[in-house]
Amino acid sequence: MKNKSYIPFICTVLLFLVSMGYAQPLKVLTYNIHHANPPSKQGSIDLEAIARVIRESGAELVALQEVDVYTERSGKHADQAKELGKLTGMHHYFAKAIDYQGGEYGVAILSKHPFMTTGNQPLPMAENVGGEPRTLAMAVVEPRAGKPLVFACTHLDLKPENRLLQAREIVKWGAGLDLPVILGGDFNAQPDSEAIRLLDACFRRSSVTNGFTIPVESPNREIDFIMFGPKAHFEVVKHEVIEERYASDHLPVYVELEFR
To answer: What are the sequence ranges of the domains in the chain?
Structure first.
């Protein structure tokens, strides 16, 4: 019989490596899905194309923007958040931003980990500016044993006055959390904008040089981000803008985070 005295030693080493942060990194995706309408096929809906991007990325936490639930354009019986949950084998949570075409339109969270709690916080708008109501979706999950965190998703307004108010509200929200947070979204703002600079003072933002996310053909702007905090809790292992040009008018952003 072979000597197995080395097994306890190996187990000890593995436990040590895990405790030192060498566990599998958190795999996170943010994606504006354009209500699953491929830009090259006006009026069509292709949820499977969106689901394929998510599955192939291997992400375990996904922030989705421009999600339809029971709208005329996407199908009066179609709950896109629920259907994407089924197609990817993930838990889903939808947060309405507005009523739209007889249904609802907003953001969603997908997670391979069960939700401990979920919530939805409407974001403010400036007076007499116009624009579109926006929201912040949030879920508490425990992707690693004993390490719960808040995963959140948002889609800021096109109007700069509204974006700034919404960024301030998110900073205020983040400062009041007792748990680490990861925030994904379409911020409709580039890195040098006032809104992003404000968010950068509270969260760390994953980025790469020329990590442009829109338009899908010859992208030249970066407006889709994954942020996290407190900064000491995470380290970016990988940042990739996925070159998927069919399914949506945005490119998805994939980030791997070491969770300390």
So the answer is: 23-259
* Chain segment 91-135, per-residue pLDDT in tens: 999 999 999 999 999 999 999 999 999 999 999 999 999 999 999
- Domain 23-259 carries which CATH code? 3.60.10.10
In this prediction, residue 197 carries a pLDDT of 97
The DSSP secondary structure of the chain, one letter per residue, reads ----TTHHHHHHHHHHHIIIIISPPEEEEEEE-GGG--TTSTT---HHHHHHHHHHHT-SEEEEEEEEES-TTT-TT-BHHHHHHHHHT-EEEEEEEEEETTEEEEEEEEESS--SEEEEEEEP--TT-----EEEEEEEEEEETTEEEEEEEEE--SSHHHHHHHHHHHHHHHHT-SS-EEEEEE-SS-TTSHHHHHHHTTSEE---TT---BSSSS--B--EEEEEESGGGEEEEEEEE----SS-SS--EEEEEEE-
